[in-house]
TrEMBL record:
Subcellular localization: Nucleus
Biological process annotations from GO: DNA repair; pollen development
Keyword ATP-binding among record annotations: no
UniProt GO MF annotations: 5'-flap endonuclease activity; metal ion binding
Organism: Colocasia esculenta
Name of the featured protein: Flap endonuclease GEN-like 1
One Gene Ontology cellular component: nucleus
Length: 622
């Protein structure tokens, strides 16, 4: 949730639209709990639509989501994900979570004493309710460890540790939907991410928010205290997000929390900046020179009957014109009156907001301020990963196959196929960092060639062909290979369910088979520069031959008549009509009259074949 009051809608105008390549070669901290909760519902809904049954449910959707999204984030987007797991939530968070649950269930937690039960011991309904979810998180952690991803456990909030990593520069962005990540100090937050979508995702930078709204970290914290947050769902009654932003913008970042503290204590000194007007000043501001009731300009209507109004700028017998609807006089006296009214209106609004804040008991909550501002001490990693060492290891394929077979009933070939994009990415990165002549993919595949350029999700990729070394370059198709596409049909799941990665293709060329995968062009260029240069040269040669084949011969291009513009009907198309000329000593054939009912149509004989086609047609059909 994060900050209440539709806080994301406030920040949306300042979001950047980034594409797939934005995260390439960048480290990102992922809030694992948010990832599971956000996409578990989407996976279940897609599965029900696929099976056309309202009660259909996939097997362990949290594991499926974690597996596919991790492979896509690592391979397709080229990022280095760091997964952060929630620790023990603060008691305020547990109380607010229980209150939110009771609201959704239509219960009154105060009447049932549930909140006090949660605060007294750690075995209340709020903690019991999360045991099932924590079991799902633990299973996802086991899966990520088999995939070789680094995992950090926060002492408290996962988004707090993500923000701390972002502040320290260990990661470049945070992937979470909790808007209070900015309150913990995050600099770059990615709200939603869909690797199989052509649409860009939203990326929020704190620098853009500061430039657009003029709000810094303590300003955002003050807004969270006013409208509600994860530790206090209520906030201050009667204050929404617009009112909170407008009120907070009146103060500087260094003084905003002190001002809220003074207002909460009912200190009248906080109103010192309000310049109250005395009754005499107010009455004097209302006095102004008389204005014409007809045109609205200074001067009376009686005067304008005899003397023309200077501001109306009229000529002739008319001295002034009638004022239009919504007319406002721009004289100094009227402007001063309007300014005074606007100032009094703003001061009254400010007083009402201060009264609402002072009416709230124990405002502001210093414990909430301490949680947000001192997250480096209260929400840092656990003892075993206090140094935040981030290491990405190779996946344990055999253990991973057994794990997915046990939890998902996946065939070994299905798991290996879906893991191929991650393995090829790791192989290419190893070739870039430490090029070796005999390095093989999975110990049995070698780089063969680049087949073509493929556009996927509006981004170009190289289609790379891999061949098995054990069988040589002339290897025949192995029906028992783990990469046979037919093995995947045994999995009863939709093929395009959300974030499932692309399956590597099996290409057969002259009886030899190759595995084709989509790889990033820059990564392939860095790993195999000679192969890329050879592919580009061959591609350019094919394109030049194609252009020559489709082009016009040079002798036709040099022809003076070939200008590209048709000057006459006979320039490009010769006329087939031949003018009929009478033979010597004979008169030309007479044209039969039209409409003669008694006349017979003349049928052309053999001697008439010398006539042109148009003449014969007229003779035949009259």
């Amino acid at each position: 949730m994060g900050v209440g009051g539709n806080f994301w809608d406030l920040l949306k105008p300042y979001a950047r639209s980034e594409g797939m390549d934005f995260l390439r070669d960048k480290r990102v901290a992922v809030d694992l709990s948010f990832w599971i909760v956000q996409h578990d519902t989407a996976v279940r809904a897609a599965f029900r639509r696929y099976h056309d049954h309202p009660n259909a449910s996939p097997r362990n959707p949290h594991l499926r989501v974690t597996f596919f999204r991790t492979v896509n984030l690592f391979a397709k987007m080229g990022a280095f994900p760091v997964f952060v797991v929630d620790g023990e939530p603060p008691r305020l968070k547990a109380r607010a979570r229980m209150e939110r649950f009771c609201r959704a269930s239509g219960l009154d937690p105060s009447a049932m004493g549930l909140l006090d039960m949660d605060m007294e011991d750690g075995d209340g309904p709020g903690f019991q309710r999360n045991r099932v979810f924590m079991k799902c998180v633990q299973e996802c952690v086991e899966l990520l460890e088999l995939l070789g991803m680094p995992i950090l456990r926060a002492r408290s909030e996962a988004e707090a540790l993500c923000a701390q990593l972002n502040v320290e520069g260990q990661v470049d962005a945070c992937i979470t939907a909790d808007s209070d990540a900015f309150l913990f100090g995050a600099k770059c937050v990615i709200k939603g991410l869909n690797s199989n979508s052509k649409e860009p995702f939203e990326c929020y930078n704190i620098s853009d928010i500061e430039a657009g709204l003029g709000l810094r970290r303590k300003h955002l914290l003050a807004i969270a205290l006013l409208v509600g947050n994860d530790y206090d769902l209520q906030g201050v009654p009667g204050i929404g997000i617009d009112t909170a932003v407008r009120f907070v913008q009146l103060f500087k970042e260094d003084e905003i929390l002190d001002r809220l503290d003074a207002i909460g204590k009912g200190n009248s000194a906080v109103y010192g900046n309000i310049n109250w007007q005395s009754p005499s000043d107010e009455s004097s501001s209302r006095t102004r020179s008389p204005h014409c009731s007809n045109c609205g300009h200074p001067g009376s209507k009686r005067i304008h009957l005899t003397t023309a109004c200077v501001l109306c700028n009229v000529s002739g017998n008319v001295n002034c014109v009638s004022k239009p609807p919504g007319f406002k006089c721009e004289c100094s006296a009227c402007s001063k009156v309007r300014q005074s009214k606007q100032q009094r209106k703003h001061e009254n609004w400010r007083v009402r907001v201060c009264q609402k804040i002072s009416a709230e008991e124990k405002f502001p909550n210093y414990q909430i301020i301490e949680i947000y501002l001192n997250n480096s001490r209260n929400c840092s990693g656990s003892a075993e990963n206090e140094d935040h060492s981030l290491l990405w290891k190779n996946p344990k394929i055999d253990d991973l196959v057994d794990f997915m077979a046990y939890y998902q009933n996946w065939e070994p070939s299905y798991t290996r196929q879906r893991l191929i994009p991650m393995l090829t990415t790791i192989f290419l990165r190893e070739m870039v960092s430490n090029p070796q002549a005999g390095l093989l993919l999975c110990g049995q595949y070698e780089f063969h060639s680049i087949q073509r350029i493929k556009i996927r999700c509006s981004h170009p990729f190289y289609v790379v062909k891999w061949t098995r070394v054990s069988c040589g370059s002339n290897s025949q198709v192995d029906e028992q290979s783990d990469l046979q596409l037919g093995d995947t049909l045994e999995v009863n799941e939709p093929a395009d369910l959300l974030d499932e990665p692309d399956v590597p293709l099996i290409l057969i060329d002259d009886g030899c088979w190759f595995m084709a995968t989509d790889e990033n062009m820059e990564l392939v260029q860095a790993a195999f520069p000679e192969e890329v240069d050879r592919f580009l040269e061959e591609k350019e040669l094919k394109e030049s031959k194609s252009r020559k084949k489709k082009g016009t011969p040079s002798d036709k291009l040099d022809s003076p008549k070939s200008t590209g513009i048709q000057l006459s009907i006979t320039e490009f198309y010769r006329s087939t009509k031949v003018a009929s000329q009478p033979r010597s000593g004979k008169e030309p054939a007479e044209k039969p009259s039209k409409g003669g009912s008694g006349e017979k149509r003349r049928i052309p004989t053999g001697s008439d074949r010398s006539l042109s086609k148009s003449v014969r047609r007229r003779l035949l059909f009259g």
